[in-house]
Amino acid sequence: MYAMAETAPDASLADLDRLAELAEDVIRRARAAGASQAEVAASIDTGLSVNVRLGEVETVEHTRDRGFGLTVYFGRRKGSASTADLDPRSIDATLAQACAIARYTEEDPAAGLADPERMARHFPDLDLWHPWALDTAQAIALGQRIEAAGRAHAGITQSDGASVQSQASLSVYANSHGFVGRERGTSHSLALTLIAGEGEQMQRDYWYDHRRAAADLMDPVALGDRAAERTLARLGARSLSTRSCPVLFAPEVARGLIGHLVGAVSGGALYRRASFLLGAAGQSIMPGWLNLYERPFLRRGHGSAAFDAEGVATSDSALVEAGVLVRYVLGSYAARKLGLVTTGNAGGIHNLVVAPGAADGEASDFSAMLQRLGSGLLVTEVMGQGVNLVTGDYSRGAAGFWVEAGRIVAPVAEVTIAGNLREMLAGIQAVGTDVDPRSSILTGSILLERMTVAGA
């Protein structure tokens, strides 16, 4: 589908070996300097990013970034330092600085590496490494092709540009338990933002795709068409009178709702007592038919990993089962603060799958989800930061479409949707099969029983 430059020899495994050797050497030196424990995270990231607007190149950016972070523990005293330079002198200075910091910090009973018996021992191939041999000229041509496809639609009056991005990341995490974990992954994306209409009637929308392998990306012409269709569909958008009605979150918006749930059950929010779901483990927080599972071993998954940011083995496990919150999302530090054990989630969740379904047991595609909505608001975009995880209060600007009898009848803009996350989660009526694969949170559209929609 995409033109390729001549493939260069893949040096990624050799680079990983060098990072691992450096990490192990620095850990040995940290122990010799008196550290009781030490851990290192080292990385090399490369990328190409091209932006095209109105057929002309706006920006071209090539990146090659290096990172090296060291944390040492002198008992329960912690010191961390980092550098973006892998030069031996920079590494020496980083080691000296981390040790100096640790010697003068206060003791923290929760500080320290994750428990050694929790370290990962199994490292399956998760199919995350797919370098895209794309040169600058080819990336520019691809961006121009995407934009031209979108601008060819009657009614499209302007473009905010197309982007083509390709990134590759190599990383090593090692610690003084003897653990050394290597990871390599690629990430590629295409995007286009368009404008339709004139003056006060202008509307903007976009579409994008994001994959581990370029071969899985959406056809560029189809992506341009999709962006144009979405933009044109918003012409004539109006506000609504204030009302209470059912709300259907499109998949790309629904994953944000699930993201708020993950944030509320994550360790930092819990031990700071800054979550509306504090103490909710073992309680029913969602309908009894609803299940959320963490799946860290999905091939080509955006959140796939055999170990977390502390080297702890990941595992397939439920987060919500039959509506009940069965566990929190914890790294070892937060777990110790809470008197619990790590769930292998230092650094975040690893592919959270929201199982499609409904109270009647029938899974629905997007068309059927509109029928379930009946008359209500389909939300395709949310704006603003009006989410309070302490209280669960939710209030955000929104745009989308008004639906009558299961059919889209008019575009909607300049409204605010409001509710409380605890009530919203408990009031989920159905989850669609129209799963958005572009994220580590994998969910279809989500139908909520009722929200307040504030408009004109």
From TrEMBL:
Domain Metalloprotease TldD/E C-terminal: 243-455
Source organism superkingdom: Bacteria
Domain Metalloprotease TldD/E N-terminal: 38-102
Annotated GO CC locations: cytosol
Single Gene Ontology MF annotation: metallopeptidase activity
Ranges where the Metalloprotease TldD/E central domain occurs: 130-235
Xref: NCBIfam families: PRK11040.1
Stated family: Belongs to the peptidase U62 family.
Protein name as annotated: TldE protein, part of TldE/TldD proteolytic complex
Species this protein is from: Aerosticca soli
